[in-house]
Amino acid sequence: MAGRVTPLDDHHKRLGARFTEFGGWEMPVQYSGIIDEPLSVRQGCGLFDLSHMGEVDIRGLLALEFAQWVLTNDVLKAAPGRVQYSLLCSETGGIIDDLLVYRHPDYVTLIVNASNTAEDLEWLLQQANKPPYRGKVAIVNVGEERAILAVQWPKAPEVMEAAGLGEVLDLPYMAFCLLGDNGELMVSRTGYTGEIGYELYMPAGDAAHWWERFMMLAEPMGLKPVGLGARDTLRLEMGYTLYGSDIDESTTPWEAGLGWAVKLSKEFIGRDALAASKGRHSRLLVGFVLHDRGIARGGYTVQAEGQPIGKVTSGCISPTLNRAAGLAYVDISRSKPGTPVQIVIRGKEAAAEIAPLPFVPSRVKDPVKRCTEK
């Protein structure tokens, strides 16, 4: 298997991880199992290596103005120290990427999808080379020398405190702080699982130290390493989109249910196209659950009354629900929760219905309790 590897590649191999190629990276897909790992996150605590994700700084005299121009959300409404979900859109309103924006006082850090990092960088550089930003904005690929770990629920606060990071327990959801002598460790209360969790951004050379520090807590605190397979299941249970599966440049934020991250009150690339198309889309990304046996994979046809009404984009067996579930684009007239549909699986119709999202209740905003609190 060819591909880039993270700074923790040897650690994953020693743990007996199975690997897969993802976004040009050789990544651990699972350790203990595709059922055990998601349940360990829902019931105990999971440790993820996310070092394949891209990390890009927008710096310079006009950094914040440029971020406002290229991102759909309102960066200036995010106070320094806050994290914001946003989108990069094309002139026609298609989604180039979805990402997290870390707002610093005079610049921003973007956490972008691994498979899109090179394309995002090229696109941002093209925009930064246009007036009035030329010479006043710097696009810096800091991810080349960084690593990312995630610690996710429900023992995440306890694990973080035991690892010597108790100061981050005061962070509200979607906030971050800089730690270390020079602010080299960035810790945020964010995640892709719907649980209370933390993501740690650090120099690549520090990754092994932090991984080993957390793994020392595995036995006493029930922490387990978790691969990309479980991460995909966990995000799907929450109805979170995955770029390349559920969204891409052929989809708009309105269709994907991401309109809340689009602020038409400001100017940004793609604004005019999105303003014109708002409320005029004919399909919508929805959740569904299967009543019959089987797994609905991406590309499978969704039918209603014998007629095709859409396509599945993501599907899995949810360990939490103990049933098959997924996401699909369907005709907006058939998008109401409770609507009976059929998924065509290997030529046979499987009974299903449109279901509200998330499939599993989110706990991201639950209050954090310290270990000493009983």
Gist?
With 374 residues, the chain is α+β, with helices and mostly antiparallel strands. It has nine helices and 19 strands.
Please describe the topology of this protein.
Elements: H1 9-14, E1 18-22, E2 25-30, H2 36-43, E3 45-49, E4 54-59, H3 63-70, E5 83-89, E6 95-103, E7 108-112, H4 117-128, E8 138-141, E9 146-152, H5 156-162, E10 176-179, E11 185-188, E12 197-203, H6 207-215, H7 218-221, E13 223-226, H8 228-237, H9 271-277, E14 283-290, E15 301-304, E16 307-318, E17 323-331, E18 340-345, E19 348-355
Parallel strand pairs: 3-13
Antiparallel strand pairs: 1-2, 3-9, 4-7, 4-8, 5-6, 6-7, 9-12, 10-11, 11-12, 14-17, 14-19, 15-16, 15-18, 16-17, 18-19
Can you offer a commentary on this structure?
19% of the residues lie in helices and 32% in strands. The protein is an alpha+beta fold and 374 residues long. The chain has a six-stranded mixed sheet, with helices on both faces. The termini are far apart. The mean pLDDT is 96.
Corresponding CATH superfamily of the largest domain: Probable tRNA modification gtpase trme, domain 1
Q: Percent range for helical residues?
A: 10-25%
Mean pLDDT: 96
Q: Show unreliable segments.
A: none
- Can you tell me the overall shape? globular
Number of strands: 19
Known CATH architecture of the largest domain? 2-Layer Sandwich
- Give the biggest beta sheet: 6 strands, mixed
The whole-angstrom Rg is 21 Å
Beta-strand share of residues: 25-35%
Strand order of the largest sheet: 10-11-12-9-3-13
Helix-strand pattern, N to C?
Answer: HEEHEEHEEEHEEHEEEHHEHHEEEEEE
- Please give the CATH class of the largest domain: Alpha Beta
Instruction: List the domain count as a whole number.
Output: 2
- Structural class of the secondary elements? alpha+beta
End-to-end Cα distance: 48 Å
In CATH, the topology of the largest domain is named: Gyrase A, domain 2
Number of helices: 9
